[in-house]
Design goal:
Layout lengths: L1 H63 L5 E7 L2 E7 L6 E11 L2 E11 L5 E8 L3
Antiparallel strand pairs: 1-2, 2-3, 3-4, 4-5
Length: 131
């Protein structure tokens, strides 16, 4: 009878150990996945910030000189963003497009400007899938 109780106790301990191991492994997997998601989200936000910053620089340059064509890379902090070729000519109906990549995340922004000077009028400022 004592041997049977010992086997039952041993079996119970083994089952509890297996369940505990599975729970810990699952928690580690979930935590790792969450960490990766947070990193991707951070990279995406930083890439969008850089694209927006590039767009603001491009608009300032256009206001100062409406023949500005863009097509340049700006270094901001330790990252960079690109101002693509500015579309349109003169003081009205201009389109600025920028892009930035941080990690595996790329963000592209397109700004449609109806008037540059004296007061800049922006028809749209949006994140786009492709330029």
């Amino acid at each position: 009878m004592k041997i049977k109780k010992a086997y039952v106790l041993l079996t119970t301990v083994i089952i509890i150990a297996i369940v505990t191991t599975l729970l810990v492994a699952n928690m580690i997997a979930i935590n790792t996945e969450s960490t990766v998601s947070v990193g991707v989200l951070r990279d995406s936000k930083e890439a969008l910030f850089l694209s927006d910053a590039c767009a603001e620089v491009a608009i300032d340059k256009l206001k100062d000189n409406n023949t500005y064509t863009g097509n340049e890379v700006l270094n901001i902090s330790s990252e960079s963003c690109s101002i693509l070729l500015v579309q349109g000519t003169g003081n009205t109906n201009r389109t600025v497009q920028t892009t930035s990549t941080v990690g595996d995340s790329t963000q592209k922004v397109q700004i449609v400007i109806t008037q540059l000077n004296p007061d800049t009028q922006i028809a749209s400022w949006k994140v786009v899938a492709d330029h």
